[in-house]
TrEMBL record, chains A, B:
Protein role: Involved in the recovery of exogenous heme iron. Extracts iron from heme while preserving the protoporphyrin ring intact.
SUPFAM superfamilies listed in its UniProt record: Dimeric alpha+beta barrel (SSF54909)
Family according to the record: Belongs to the DyP-type peroxidase family.
Alphabetically ordered keywords of this record: Heme, Iron, Lyase, Membrane, Metal-binding, Oxidoreductase, Peroxidase, Signal, Transmembrane, Transmembrane helix
Source species, domain of life: Bacteria
Cofactor note (record): Binds 1 heme b (iron(II)-protoporphyrin IX) group non-covalently per subunit.
Name of the protein described by the UniProt record: Deferrochelatase
Cofactors required: heme b
Domain Dyp-type peroxidase C-terminal: 250-425
Length: 437, 437
């Protein structure tokens, strides 16, 4: 929040960025010109490489000064999957606007990638940003993140089944490139889905250690989408309910239990290869290095759960509430034993365990949410479940297995979506470039 | 999040707490016995002094270890007013349940005070907490904050006008003790209030640097209220939009502008005395050392604002978006000059300035909020305005003055409430004790 330091750094960095940009053209400025941005356009359109060159330098300077974290937007995989789970989430689902064409979609992905490459480095969405442009035009950047560091922001972009083909047909000439695996999820026991909080042509997962940085990201990416895509639904989350590195302590969900003890960790290359990343040998080729994202908004019947006796809570989960140890003994990280009677056959830990599911594992990345309360005075709260897997069938198999989960009595799945998450963009390119190649 | 360290500390502290409690009885356990808490009751009812003795020791130990902050719940003033503004808010408004009596209200305030005295020190709501009680009973504490530090949590409790008298009359025998100043706010230009998001017999402002800690507080205090009061509405907020110490950088609201530059600061004893704290000479006597809280949920028309050119945004606010300096010159902390033409007569900074309002000042403590988006794809976002003042007339005068505010075009007041915030409780007592003396 050191205003003067940051402003100085941004200026220096933006100069670097503009210099770097001259040798790395990349992005269409078509969509941006559709916005009444005037003086800001030059900044927004300097090319996708710009944010990187300037951003990394800035990231390093700040890391030394403020111990802040900045993750590269470009790379083999998109950031925000194996990245150490941040503290805050703003997730957004978008639908493409009527009468948009293939070029609109490509330019949107290019513009999103360019802006994401900047804001993940703590920069504004363009070189002119919130206050550096023509004062007689609306600023490029909405400005509420001025002075804030990158805060570990990651932007992860996904493509829903409806993007490839919907009731309007093959709008973008990509129907034949749809991954066979990318289909709307089947109905599950316990589904009580709100269509207004499900699905979407596109999604953006913004995670950061500062909620204002995550909100700034979704707000500005929504704004950049103006005329091409619009927000369908969105969700804020906090207090990550999983971990992706062994250095992270296991957090607790709103049932008060540790969550994510047995999650796939970022340093487990073999598990990631087997369970998370789409392989080169998988179809389609443009998804290699990508993953499939499932989002489920899971409402928890908080007040009902809170009236359940401790021994029953433990039995439902199959773990001790305090330590997280399986009821078969040991500590949090002891493998549960299912042969005895200590762990109920329909406990959550047993039904979700790889041993009971042909070895299937998924990488979970959920967050707690509270959307105020309902008219009965009950908290509208729960778990915004996010998981990444190499094939959606992994999630489907696990979720079917959970149909007899003792926990089902205390939860309702109220939102759902699935998206193909392409591999990371190469520097100077954009997320999804392979789809249009 | 260091599980083992925290558990050890909690255990030690709880022992201290129980020891201390034997010499400081205080709280009714009536309401608690109404809950099916069984084994937890002993813990919940050990007395109000308990949390303090144990809590402060624990707070100190953790401060050294984790650089975490714990604020005393007890004191001359309630915490959460001049306390350095934390990063997160969970605000809750409650209505008393039908057929509750004076003893119910007193026991509720006692139980809230006891629990608050513990959780503000990073403890669970009772000595047995989430997992230390009888396993055949529901736990006292819902458990999601196990392992988390106090995170600067403050709990601030207020009494609405309807608590003193409503359509059911003088339910609690306190109508004649209602502060004359405590009346529902008059209608203002720009009001578009949702009754379901306004008013309330009681309110609790929970602020913390970790949203999970603030949410845990409201959830557990709501639970403790079971059968006596129920949640009427609640609001999460983030990214404080004011500051209360000169060490805090001025944060930005969702219009992208610095907010709170000229706020009353915690070290300005004279300004606090004149503008924030109810004086001993003010009526009624039981409010001396207290304050009046006004909450306004102010929706921002984000997408409309984002299309306004920078020069006009600056003119509307009367300050430069980047630096926060008044348009009459200088830097952020230069006093604005209204004699020239640089600052519009209807700019926000001018209309809200003490010079234009007979010297009136208020202590602001608002937060940004995002409640997802509406069906048009627009962010449901804005400012959850909270202000503390010695007399509600201060807010009323300022808000009337803002009727011609240029900013009005871009905001809607959608929620409103006012509460008398009693002085802090003495150690071993409870918030509001003076009202019933």
């Amino acid at each position: 929040m050191s205003e003067s330091t940051t402003d100085a750094a941004t200026t220096a960095s933006d100069d670097d960025a503009v210099a770097a940009a001259s040798s790395s053209p990349g992005l269409s400025r078509r969509g941006l010109l559709g916005l009444a941005l005037g003086g800001g356009v030059a900044g927004l359109a300097v090319g996708v490489g710009a944010g990187v060159a300037g951003g990394v330098a800035l990231g390093r300077a700040r890391a030394a000064e403020e111990a802040q974290t900045a993750y590269d937007f470009f790379g083999a995989h998109q950031a925000g999957i194996t990245t150490p789970v941040q503290e805050h989430l703003h997730f957004a689902s978008f639908d493409m606007m009527p009468r948009t064409d293939r070029d609109d979609l490509i330019s949107l992905l290019q513009d999103w990638s360019y802006a994401a490459s900047r804001i993940t480095q703590g920069l504004e969405v363009s070189a002119t940003g919130a206050v550096g442009g023509d004062a007689e035009e609306p600023p490029d950047d909405t400005g509420e993140a001025q002075g804030l560091p990158a805060a570990g922001l990651t932007i992860t972009i996904g493509f829903g089944p409806s993007l490839f083909e919907n009731e309007d047909g093959d709008r973008y000439g990509i129907a034949d490139r749809r991954p066979q695996a990318l289909e709307r999820l089947p109905p599950f026991v316990g589904d009580d889905l709100d269509p207004a909080h499900s699905q979407g042509d596109l999604c953006i997962q913004a995670c950061a250690d500062d909620p204002q940085v995550a909100v700034h990201a979704i707000r500005n990416l929504s704004r950049i989408a103006f005329g091409r895509a619009r927000l369908r639904w969105s969700q804020l989350g906090f207090g990550k309910t999983s971990r992706t590195t062994s250095a992270q302590a296991t957090p607790r969900n709103l049932f008060g239990f540790k969550d994510g003890t047995a999650n796939i960790l970022a340093d487990d290359a073999k598990a990631l290869e087997q369970n998370v990343w789409v392989a080169v040998s998988d179809e389609p080729g443009w998804m290699a290095g990508g993953s499939y994202l499932v989002a489920r908004k899971i409402a928890m019947l908080i007040e009902t759960w809170d009236r359940v006796r401790l021994s029953e809570q433990d039995a439902i989960i199959g773990r001790e509430k305090g330590s997280g140890a399986p009821l078969s003994g040991g500590d949090e990280f002891t493998e549960p034993k299912f042969s005895g009677t200590a762990i109920d056959a329909n406990s959550h830990v047993r039904l979700a365990h790889p041993d009971q599911n042909d070895g299937i594992r998924i990488l979970r990345r959920g967050f707690n949410y509270v959307d105020g309360n309902n008219e009965l005075g009950r908290l509208a709260a729960g778990l915004f479940f996010l998981s990444y897997q190499r094939d959606p069938q992994q999630f489907i198999a696990l979720q079917k297995r959970l149909s007899t989960d003792l926990m089902s009595e205390y939860i309702r799945h109220v939102g759902s979506g699935i998206w193909a998450v392409p591999p990371g963009a190469a520097s100077g390119s954009y997320v999804g470039a392979g789809l249009f190649a």
